[in-house]
Amino acid sequence: MHPARSLGTIASMIALKNVSKSYHRKRVLTDISLQVDPGEFVCITGLSGTGKSTLIHLLAGVEEASSGRIEVDGVDLRAVPPIAMRLFRQRVGVVFQDYKLLSHYTVRENIGYPLEVCGAPQAAIVKRVGELLTELKLTRKADALPRELSGGEQARTAIARALAHEPMILFADEPTGNLDPEQSEKILKLFLGINKKGTTVVLATHDAALVDVLQTRVITLDDGKIVRDSRGSYREHKGQTHQILEEQPEKRPKTAAGARRKVRITAIGS
How many whole angstroms from its chain centre is CA 230? Predict the structure, then answer.
């Protein structure tokens, strides 16, 4: 299997095999083994400090493991040539917990930035950014700076930027952590819609109500280890493992996540 073709043309399976991660001799993740298949919607849950963000970064290729293997379609990322690794990272979207919007860029410029970095033609950038501004209801804020946006608008801008290059996988780290229940519900619907279109979604959250709405695969971390990997709501399983999520009383309608399927990826401007 050619690494560049595997990492860049089809929604890929990512696997962690006995992966551990330490920072300055402090162990954050211990012996993590899991697989994320194309088209899945996966929730990673756990309290703050249990390793959710670190696991997202490892899956996304943002950080390297201290030990173990991270594979994409059976290819060890450590053996992938730099040019193919860049291609993989360009096919992955990441929504960070603090959004990391460029403060001196407008909403329009923030969304288009990944395409500029990839060298996409200007006409393709304008077209794609316009589509995302409309889809995420940001058209009226297109020329606003991040500081002029509400929390929900900042979240939608970060999601739009992560989707700009049509990623095969979207990773999101606590995207609703700073939002009220109404805004959180809107963001949740966005992720469900993205998944139904074929993009694999891996979402880290401590929100038990959100997990219950999704009714999808749940991976629970405690002290840097996986203590649960199953499907269904949080409340259906909390008797099997101790309660580690922060409950929220709001009720939200149940919505089914998208089905698994492989997705052909078309590069912007091609």
Answer: 19
pTM, two decimals, is: 0.80
Token pair recorded at residue 106: 């407008």
Are the beta carbons of 209 and 142 closer than 8 angstroms? no
Domain boundaries defined on the chain: 1-91+167-261, 101-165
Q: What kind of fold does domain 1-91+167-261 have according to CATH?
A: Rossmann fold (3.40.50)
Whole-number Å distance between alpha carbons of 240 and 228: 9
Residue type, 193: G
Q: Which residues of the chain have pLDDT under 70?
A: 1-11, 232-270
Position 11 scores a pLDDT of 61
Q: Retrieve residue 235's tokens.
A: 């409340």
Q: Is 111 left (phi over 0), alpha (psi -120 to 50) or beta?
A: alpha
97 and 109 Cβ atoms separated by less than 8 Å? no
- Residue 77 has a pLDDT of 85
